[in-house]
Input
Amino acid sequence: MGVVNVTPDSFSDGGVFDDEIAAIAHARRLVAEGAEIVDVGGESTRPGAAPVPVAAELERVIPVVEGVAGLGLAAQISIDTMKAEVAAAALDAGASYVNDVTAFRHDPDMAALVADRGVDCCLMHMLGEPRTMQEDPRYEDVVDDVRAFLEERMARAVEAGVKEERIQLDPGIGFGKTLEHNLELLRRLGEIAAIGRPVVLGTSRKSFIGRLTGRDVAGRVHGTVATCVLGYERGARVFRVHDVAAVHDGLSVAAATLPPDGS
Ligand code: HH2
Output
């Protein structure tokens, strides 16, 4: 899953693809590099990010979704939003995957929308909300807590009519987690994969990699590849990344050296 942020303020690529032509060209490049999903987002979720009104988010993402759909690429288009109105417009414009970092908690209409349209979705764990999530996050046991949350959100989505086979689950690396929480989730990722749905892993260029390597955002690609390869071995199957070519190479080599079922 390649990231196309159409935002002025994303933590790693804010302002780089915030005009629609650049964003569409970037999506084309990510697919050429091996992405099977392009994830278009118009609202940063970095710690402390300001919320974006619906109208502004629509204005950012819809022309990009339309433009990418018009390219006829061999990739699914995902909309990274917590708002049902934005998701609905993106699905109308050619998206077929809803990536909601609130796991359908922010907008009461989101689950029904995904159910009605019969599209794929990603339910992600986040403690609190982006504005405050990094203020002293605490867990009983981070892996048990995240797993219980994802199981509960999946059950709610299924109750609302979403087919279980449409649901992917994401532990939400960096969303209300300390360095140690992120590392524990990565170490025990197999316990999240054991839920039985495809696990999405979003480690790309995140600050915990900077903490471990001392690198700024642009220098975190090697650390990102390491997390994806180890995540793959522990059962993750979708990797939300900015540097598709590097991660694709890493995963291709890892996959070739593991048993065919990845176990
Ligand atoms: N991380 C970010 C945004 N969306 N979605 C999923 N499913 N998993 C993630 O880990 C995830 C996500 C944050 O990364 P980015 O989009 O690069 O930054 P920003 O939120 O500042 O736009």
In short: The CA atoms of residues 31 and 75 lie 7 Å apart. The two ends are 21 Å apart (CA to CA). The first strand starts at residue 2 and ends at 5. The pocket of 6-hydroxymethylpterin-diphosphate is lined by residues 3, 5, 7, 10-12, 41, 44-46, 80, 99, 101, 122, 124, 170, 172-173, 200, 202, 240 (CB under 6 Å).
